[in-house]
Specification:
Distance between the termini: 66 Å
InterPro entries: aa-tRNA-synth_I_codon-bd_sub2, aa-tRNA-synth_I_CS, aa_tRNA-synth_I_cd-bd_sf, Lys-tRNA-ligase, Rossmann-like_a/b/a_fold
Family: Belongs to the class-I aminoacyl-tRNA synthetase family.
GO molecular function, one term: lysine-tRNA ligase activity
GO biological process, one term: lysyl-tRNA aminoacylation
Shape: elongated
Low-confidence stretches: 1-21
Number of strands: 13
CATH superfamily of one domain: HUPs
Catalytic activity: tRNA(Lys) + L-lysine + ATP = L-lysyl-tRNA(Lys) + AMP + diphosphate
CATH architecture of one domain: 3-Layer(aba) Sandwich
Length: about 550
């Protein structure tokens, strides 16, 4: 089933706005894309070279992303589909050849262990080793465990407006779609064993087989050696070790009666479906190498693609589901909008990046900074701007609306307000933003919700304002006197000038302006970093800011 959506993320990226490339001809856009150094274009040019003589025989270029339905979709799933879609759109800007994206679910895999985050674990333990589509749904909602997680995957992809064609491994095997490719696996059995055996430990070599027959009695996916009986008929011989005493069986591997080992399965799928592009994590580099060799053994060309780096936690350690040291998709979307996550996913995909709540505010503000720059940029800079690829991932225009305040400034405002409501925040914004309202600035209204949640859960528990030193206290008293002499509607620039002047006075003993600003942040805001103080004071109000100073001096 193909999903096509006109809007982007449900969080509001489908707001009406001018397409900043409207004035650029398709020819100019294509010419600029052909030389752009932005990574989606560099990846897309691999496909131009792959089919430099014209469109493939199947009539389209096929992109694929894979998903293991033993668990629920997560932030890594989002990143892989988003990044693949960015490459797809980049290719479409340079070529008239149609494209498709398959979201493939490996739902015929045998369940190896019971996930920690699902109910009815005892029931699942009784079905260990069986294909995920043959295991009852522990949530009691769907035909099987895999059907449940596949439904979650499709709901997940639909939520973000991705254009994709969902495919189930079980359906492909059982329908016979893979039958010819499976026969070919048996015809090249010795060649595939020659590729795989040198990569395995000696004890694993003794039991390894590219083909995993499914026991006709227990329904378990068997990890046993097999003997090819008749490749053209798809027949193999094996020992069914899942039944008492074992039993020698001759059985077809066609029609869903067997599946393939992971690396062989991946290669077979590339060949059977005609996959042209698939990216994967750095942890699968070896799998890509071996699967590519197998694809060539089968007489096909492996797909193009690249290996992206994995995320790290705030300590620089590899994220582990069992450790729980990562950041979930739900957490990010609680504290920041979808486009900020897309921005973070776009930047430097081949560089290991930390993924924790502390990176969200910067990602939000940097997204808006790049979005604000987009309108005035020449075409070559537009194509290197992350927002071009974020919004282009579903064909949307880049909106031309801008924020009147930064997310960082919002966080500082909420920080000094304490337990505030959206309405109270809008009341303060009226001091700084003409005609401030949720109706006029819907994106800002959503950001206020994120800022309140971020402060409540992440900032407030660690917030601590320190007592100023003697020289800092003298500087704060001087700032208070300056503010007292200024009108209530003084501009942020005028206030900033007075803040600068005090920091530069030798009498207060600051080695640099940085020390003065650090003192302001730590004594007034309770944070090590902060906003441009002129903007903050103008936003919070002179009278309120003077109360902050009085509290610090007290």
């Amino acid at each position: 089933m193909v999903r096509r959506h006109d809007g982007f993320f449900s969080g509001g990226l489908s707001l009406q706005g001018r397409d900043m490339t409207d004035s650029i001809t398709p020819a100019a856009l294509r010419e600029a894309a052909l030389v752009s150094k932005a990574w989606p274009y560099e990846e897309a040019r691999k496909l131009l070279k792959r089919y430099e003589k014209g469109a493939p025989a199947k009539g389209h270029v096929l992109f694929e992303t894979g998903y293991g339905p033993s668990g629920l979709p997560h932030i890594g799933t989002f990143n892989e589909v988003l990044r693949t879609t960015m490459v797809r759109r980049a290719y479409e800007e340079m070529s008239d050849v149609p494209t498709r994206l398959i979201a493939f679910s490996d739902d015929m895999d045998g369940l190896r262990k019971v996930p920690d985050n699902v109910p009815n674990q005892e029931m699942l333990r009784e079905h260990l080793g069986k294909p995920l589509t043959k295991i009852p749904d522990p949530f009691g909602k769907y035909e099987s465990f895999a059907h449940h997680n596949n439904a979650m995957l499709r709901e997940f992809l639909d939520r973000f407006g991705f254009d994709y064609d969902f495919r189930s491994s079980t359906e492909a095997y059982e329908s016979g779609q893979f039958d010819e490719a499976l026969k070919d696996i048996l015809r090249h059995y010795d060649g595939i064993m020659g590729i795989m055996l040198p990569t395995l430990r000696k004890e694993r070599q003794a039991t390894y087989s590219p083909v995993l027959p499914i026991s006709p009695k227990s329904g378990i996916v068997l990890q046993v050696p097999v003997e090819v009986v008749d490749a053209d008929q798809g027949l193999i011989r094996f020992e069914d070790t899942s039944v008492p005493g074992g039993e020698t069986i001759v059985q077809s591997i066609l029609g869903g009666k067997a599946k393939l080992q992971w690396k062989v399965d991946w290669a077979m799928r590339w060949v059977a479906l005609g996959v042209d592009y698939e990216m994967s994590g750095k942890d699968l580099i070896d799998s890509v190498i071996q699967s590519s060799k197998i694809a060539r053994e089968l007489g096909a060309r492996p797909p193009e693609g690249f290996n992206y780096e994995m995320f790290l936690d705030e300590k620089g350690e590899k994220i582990s589901k069992s450790k729980g040291n990562g950041l979930s998709l739900e957490q990010w979307l609680t504290y920041g909008p979808e486009e900020s996550l897309a921005f973070y996913a776009y930047r430097e995909p081949k560089k290991a990046k930390q993924l924790h709540m502390g990176v969200i505010p910067r990602a939000v503000d940097e997204y808006w900074q790049f979005r604000g720059n987009y309108a005035g940029q020449p075409i070559e800079q537009k194509l290197g701007n992350p927002v071009h690829h974020i919004h282009g991932a579903t064909g949307d225009a880049v909106p031309d609306s801008v924020l009147p305040v930064t997310f960082g400034l919002l966080l500082n405002l909420v920080g000094v307000m304490g337990d505030a409501s959206k309405e109270q925040v809008w009341g303060y914004l009226a001091n700084y933003v003409p005609d401030a309202s949720a109706e006029k600035y819907p994106e800002l209204d959503r950001l206020i919700g994120h800022a309140l949640a971020y402060h409540r859960d992440f900032v407030a528990p660690t917030l601590k304002r320190r007592k100023p030193t003697d020289n800092e206290a003298a500087a704060l008293r001087a700032l208070d006197a300056k503010l007292a002499a200024m009108p209530a509607d003084a501009s942020a620039e005028d206030i900033q000038n007075e803040v600068y002047a005090i920091g530069k006075e030798e009498a207060y003993g600051f080695a640099s302006l940085r020390d003065w600003f650090k003192a302001l942040y730590e004594t007034l805001l309770g944070a090590e970093q902060g906003p441009r103080m002129g903007s903050f004071i103008a936003l919070y109000g002179i009278a309120n800011s003077r109360r902050l100073i009085a509290e610090a001096l007290a």
